[in-house]
């Protein structure tokens, strides 16, 4: 397919939202109304001129964060919210927490992490870039056995973009600390989001930490051919306490041979170097696991059977002005109507305000500091790869009531909660004060 026909084909369709499960009664107004436009490519009469505008900015190897992208490739959510995909199949995580066998528990943790990658728009879409200081918070009050979970995230850096997040299941003493650092590059007919950053999943009842990274994301067919998103390169999951590790390769399709969306990997005991299981299949279809001792092969996870549990948020009118859904509401409404002029104008307003704030900070010689997270200290060797961590000390040895009160004191997650008096104090100062 030549470039001209590609431009014609890229008179694109609408934005996406990746959640399929029933929505919260507390926030059904905007996001539920947009579901009819999800996962659909829509014809846009401005497609050719917009795409040519992108092409004129591109150079091989250039940083895509400097490129103004057209709104028709934008997903109707911020990256801070998209991170919650990891937590939408909680039953596997909770099952892993209950498993007494070390190896089987590791396999369940690997299964839980692999299970989330298929939760993505069917069309090629990119989440909205969070602005500096943007916050997204949500909760789940419908986990198995009446458990609840809480999530807070903040854009702690803009250049380069860094999204820090924290997740907690108080009753089960499960916490997740992480940072997502996407570094985008233009590679000719493809773009790549090199996903730096790590996640630490702590099972407090077992005093175990699972450390994991992410595969990279590639968008193929920008100039010619079919638009396609691929995951590529290696994803690692390791548990230092037990010594079990997994190396999963997300394979990209070759020009002549190969297939889309394949994975291939191995689970090892790093203490003995013994290979224990092979992992194979497709990350968005069926994944299989083979026991290398017995030769038995079985399904690890079938994405067709997944039931997603959608996060719940406060009503938009109760949200702080820089919470994701309130901040981007006018832009998302434009995307939902396929009104890309409106979406572009509203997106520009948000970004221009950020530029003005950055200019003002520069003039005053003031440095930005996150409100909910603090920088990791030099002596905190085990969490250096996180770069930032929640400012409040969440001690998993505390009881569930205390843990719940602690996370709700960090940010008003639940409906009816209001911003705390100390909210605008930088996270590092609150940490020093023991707030």
UniProtKB/TrEMBL annotation:
Transmembrane segments: none annotated. PROSITE patterns: OSBP. One of its GO terms (biological process) is lipid transport. GO terms for cellular component: cortical endoplasmic reticulum; cytosol; membrane. GO terms for molecular function: sterol binding. It comes from the Eukaryota. InterPro entries: OSBP_sf, Oxysterol-bd, Oxysterol-bd_CS. Keywords: Lipid transport, Lipid-binding, Transport. Belongs to the OSBP family. This is Oxysterol-binding protein.
